[in-house]
Description:
The complex is a heterodimer.
Chain A: E1 4-15, E2 18-29, E3 33-37, H1 44-51, E4 59-64, E5 67-68, H2 74-80, E6 82-84, H3 97-104, H4 113-117, H5 121-140, H6 156-169, E7 174-178, H7 186-203, E8 206-210, H8 214-220, E9 223-228, E10 231-236, H9 238-243, H10 245-252
Parallel strand pairs in A: 3-8, 3-9, 6-7, 7-8
Antiparallel strand pairs in A: 1-2, 1-4, 4-5, 9-10
Helix pairs in contact in A: 3-5, 3-6, 5-6
Chain B: H1 3-32, H2 35-60, H3 68-91, H4 103-128, H5 133-152, H6 172-190, H7 193-203, H8 205-210, H9 215-238, H10 250-263, H11 268-284, H12 292-306
Helix pairs in contact in B: 1-6, 2-6, 2-9, 2-10, 2-11, 3-4, 3-5, 3-9, 4-9, 6-7, 6-9, 7-9, 10-11
Amino acid sequence: MSGPILELKRVTRAFGGLRAVSDLDLTLDLGLLAGLIGPNGAGKTTVFNLITGVYAPTSGEIRFEGKRIDGRATSSIARAGIARTFQNPRIFAGLTCLDNVRIACHTHAGAGLLDSILATGRSAAEEADILARSEELLRSFALDGYRDTLAGGLPYGEQRRLEIARALAAEPRLLLLDEPAAGLNPHETQALMRLIHDVRDRYKLTVLLIEHDMKVVMGICERITVLDYGVCIAEGAPAAIRSDPKVIEAYLGDAV
Amino acid sequence: MSPRKSRFARGLLWVAAALVLSLGVDRLAVNWVNPYFYRILVLCGLNVMLALSLNLVNGITGQFSIGHAGFMAVGAYASAAFTVYAVPQLFGVGPNASGLVIVGPLFLALLVGGLTSAAAGFLVGLPSMRLRGDYLAIVTLGFGEIIRVAILNIDAVGGARGFAGIPRRTDLAWVIAGALATWVVLRNLLRSYHGRAFLAIREDEIAAEALGVPTTRYKVTAFVVAAFFAGVAGALFAHYTYLHTNSFTFMKSIEVIVMIVLGGMGSLLGSVLGATVLTALPEALRFASSERLIIYSLLLIVLMIARPQGILGKTEGKSGK
């Protein structure tokens, strides 16, 4: 398949008089690792919330794989193939790491409620499959040592990794990462970025990530969109973004 | 044998074992303990059903319902009306019948009670799902009270006099079978992806939704399943003892909540334990007559200080098998 996997056309979201996102056009090509940057309050997370259906756009349309998704429920968009992580990890703290990942396998489970209540062969086979897939994911994220640990007791870096593993368990084709490196030290950040790159290649995903740390975005993103006050002020390859005067003025200042 | 067939055979074997256990315990209890203890055992079983089912909503899905007695009342009155008005016509089984002929009609009456209550659960669940926390609690409280007062004013089911003429068909065997069924259904649910969806809603609704869990549908499902078993418990109760709306006051709902909080929100075994202890404890304290309630409350306070997470804590132990 070619063409864009995600398209936002003139999307606006207003909260009362405030236009958090204004007439935003954003196109994401299949297989891309793209970045969404901008100063605090630029509307980056709002864009994620619009894509995942937490908010409905005030106007404009959002297409995923050619189909309109704006206005649909968050869970139905997740089932369509978009998974996300949150700025502050929203792991299920009171459940084990294994269960955290297993819950996300929900998107592709099909046994009915009665199947589960009667523990039929169908339900048992599906559960065995979910268990195998979840353990595999924990292994590939080096979290298998924490399989039966309550997720709330995990070190912060591991919680972030768990959240990404959990998002992948939903078998998305588009992965949205909201500041995956927030709160990590430079060493951990490096490792995480390598991991995101690997994940993209291994699972053949399209990834859109929000990031604050300039070096990180420039280091791994192939394409970057810059938001300021809800408006897209620049878009392009990292090198072009770095030298764009509007971006420097709005965001980078003297830092680069 | 194919694995599917052997699974089915194993299921049948378990059902048979459960029946033998229920009947066996009933026979033993009839022969070995006095009627007073027998009655406490029956009430224990009913409370186990109520606590287990409420735990699905409050402990496992993390919602806050305080109208469980209302669902019990719906089940009780629906099944009692069915037995009194429909059974003699449909099956020719009169109120004085006994022996095996009552098995079918009673089973049907339990289903009627459970399904009517489940329908009520659906109706209450639907609008409530836009509400959270305290607001949801108030809606369920209102439902419980409205149901009770409504029944109180229906003359066909006895109104304020209580519903007389219901044949006493429930015995300990039925109650144990009901409690076992509730337990198995909830345990199987919890071991499936459906069960984990309930837990995910308790832990973080936004994250659950983002991972593809249709949270509204699961919250309504939790209410419906819980209401079903509360309804069956009510139906068993209606065929056991004098039926009056006084048995389904707000205090009854609170009693069930205390059971699951004490046993541990989210733990099935905890609900069984909590229900048993809280049914037996007031009886065990009868020697203290007037100080009974003071001692009872003190014990609860001490327990909550010593183990705020409940006797068995929040979850069902290890997640993997």
